[in-house]
Amino acid sequence: MSEQSSRAASQVAGWTTRRWLRVSVAVTLAVLAVLGSLGAWAMSRTSDLTDQLVERRSPALTYAVRLETALVNQETGVRGYGLSGRRDFLQPYRQGVTDERTALDRLDRLTADDPRGRADLATVRRLADRWQEQWARPIAQADPEEALPLAERRATAGNTAFDALRDAMARQQEHLQQEQSAARDDLRRALTVRNAALAVIAAVIALTAVLVFEALRRGISAPLALLAHGAREVGSGRFDRPITVTGPADLRQLGADVESMRRRLLAELEFSERSRRLLDEQATDLKRSNTELEQFAYVASHDLQEPLRKVSSFTQLLQRRYGGQLDERADQYIDFAVDGANRMQVLINDLLAFSRVGRVHNDHALVDLAQIVDRTLDTLSVAVEESGARIAHDPLPTVVGDATQLGMLWQNLLSNSIKFRRPDVPPEIRITVERADDFWEFAVADNGIGIDPEFQEKVFVIFQRLHTRDAYPGTGIGLAMCKKVVEFHGGNIRIDPGHTTGTRVVFTLPVEHSAEHPAADGAREAHP
Which one of 240, 247, 353, 424 has the fewest beta carbons within 10 angstroms of its own beta carbon? Predict the structure, then answer.
């Protein structure tokens, strides 16, 4: 016996949490099914008895009383007509006939499955018909002169017939009252049984809930709390404390896995420390590289500019003083030197401006883009006038950003639209804006030469040019700078591939919720 007990205990100890839950749920569902069946039977029994009392017994007694009232009204009306000869006394009789038919119809339906009730109703109907034929109907149909003697002759027979009818109705109502009382007693007993059943169900459910809660606490919650405590110890850096868990087999296995993880973390801690030191060294190298980059920018803006200005100045002086005095090839060489020096100076300035994006100009504040665009159009007024450009823009919002960088953005976009125009076609530039969730989406569309789809990503790479310097001057850094400015402000920029009549540059900037979008309708235009 002890060996079997130990074997059974060993099998139960090997149960997983899922098996414990499955067995617990199965037992709970079985108990609830039995209790639910009992409760459903009690509720159904109570409902049936309530329906029987409310829909049959009580209405049957009510209509039996109404039937008696209708016949009494008929008897009163006919008797008054027989004594007075006045036809207005027949009004209660006629109303009583109508009420009698209604009550009899309802009683036919209400006593359909009650043999005694149908027998009582048949007796009442038979006696009522006999009373009507012998006394009530002949007097009601007679003329006033004939009604008085006819009522006197048939008074005794009428009274006898109506007394018999009254006795039959009294027996009918007595039987219906007995059935109503019996139905009430049955309903009262059913309610008592139902309430007792519900109380038992509630007690069993409460007991089951307590047992389930205690089982979950001992079998799952307590082991998980112990495991969580051990995990927090490990998380706080106490890797030297082992983790032990009791409970179902899968929780013990989980505890063993966490213990294995603790050992592995302890073994990898030194490796993580070495990696951290390596990252610190790399961060130091990166910081040094950024410092060198700043020094390079300083050199490019000061030390390289000075000798470049000398080369440019002397080559231009050489060109002015000796231009036309030397041969044609010497003049060509001088032109090449001047052009190269100028391009080098523009390139250094563009590189310096590109390196300063996000580093030098980084004063974020509320910026009215309408004012920025207006200042940009003033700066480009000469190019706008020479090209005959028409520029229109929607009401522009206020955003948070650096005014200098945003000015560079608009100047590069608008100058590109003016520069890359079709020959003999005045540029038409349209700036639109619409809100998309938490971003403003801007678009600068023109009717210029456009960009082929295969180059729409390449144009945002620094120094990437699609045309020769002879066709369109520039360093190829403008759109790269636009991308850097937009991304520094948390947006993105792209070329719209669906715009085929020119180029449409689309970029986004975050919405500043405290700034309001201008409410003016229509677009503003800048004419050449």
Answer: 424
Helix (H) or strand (E) holding 391: strand 390-393
Residue 361, pLDDT > 50, answer yes
Q: Is the pLDDT of residue 516 over 80?
A: no
Which residue is it, tokens 């003033």? 378
Nearest-angstrom CA–CA distance, 356 and 365: 18
| Beta carbons within 8 Å of 462's beta carbon, 6+ residues apart | 354, 476, 477, 480
- DSSP code of 55? I
Nearest Cα neighbor of 479 from 439, 442, 506, 440 is 506
Q: What is the pLDDT of residue 526?
A: 41
Beta bridge partners of 357: 361
pLDDT band at 405 (very low <50, low <70, confident <90, very high): confident
Residue with tokens 């009430």: 184
Q: What b/e readout covers 170-203, taking b as 16+ CB neighbours within 10 angstroms?
A: eebbebbeebbeebeebbeebeeebeebeeebee
- Give just the sign of the alpha carbon dihedral 420, 422, 428, 433: negative
Nearest to 84 by CA among 148, 149, 153: 148
User: Smallest Cα–Cα separation from 450: which of 404, 501, 376, 394?
Assistant: 501
- Token pair recorded at residue 164: 């018999």
Q: What is the mean pLDDT of residues 471-476?
A: 56
